[in-house]
Amino acid sequence: MLTIIIECRDNEAELAQTLSALVPGAVEGVVREVVVLDHGSRDGSARVADAAGCRFLTSWDMKDVVRAARGDWLLLLEPGARPMTGWVDAIVDHVSVSAGPARFTGSRNHRRPFLKRFGRRVSPLEQGYLVSKRQAAAAVRTGMSLSDIAKGTKTFSLVAEIVPAWAIRAMRAQLVAG
């Protein structure tokens, strides 16, 4: 039913965080595969992906990746993002009643400080991006990134939260500094 695609570069720890959050989807039989698109990592990203049973690609064309996806729906995520409890049911509910793309709701416990919310560009994948394979195949062009696929599209909101990747990086920085 669902193919999850993640682009990374030297994101070993973040990739491990995201993959661990996807386990409930695999257990429920909703996640058919996870594809990791690597941009020349020199860390252990390949080992993490291999240990989790992911397809790890170092050379690809996005059109081919979408076309080869085993799931009828694609979930595009940033390394480090963690869908929270209930994400599997939220996706199953969405795909059963809607054909349009969707995003997770931002985590109430992981919001940027008030003044930092202004004047910043939000990553198109900050809240994930769920899209049917058919819609993605119609939109994808050679040379596109996952963020390009998710840009400028009106989406539904899923009734499940996601901890954005930037929050994981901020927590790690506080642990290192503190």
Describe the secondary-structure layout.
Blueprint: E1 2-8, H1 12-21, H2 23-27, E2 31-38, H3 45-51, E3 55-57, H4 62-68, E4 73-77, E5 82-83, H5 87-97, E6 102-106, E7 129-132, H6 133-139, H7 146-150, E8 156-163, H8 165-177
Parallel strand pairs: 1-2, 1-4, 2-3, 6-8
Antiparallel strand pairs: 4-7, 5-8
Helix pairs in contact: 1-3
Describe this structure as you would to a colleague.
This protein has 178 residues and is an alpha/beta fold. The chain has one domain (2-177): Spore Coat Polysaccharide Biosynthesis Protein SpsA, Chain A. The chain has helices at 12-21, 23-27, 45-51, 62-68, 87-97, 133-139, 146-150, 165-177, and strands spanning 2-8, 31-38, 55-57, 73-77, 82-83, 102-106, 129-132, 156-163. Strands 3-2-1-4-7 form a 5-stranded mixed beta sheet. It has a 3-stranded mixed beta sheet with strand order 5-8-6. Helix 3 (45-51) links the parallel strand 2 (31-38) and strand 3 (55-57). Helix 1 packs parallel to helix 3 (45-51). It starts with a strand and ends with a helix.
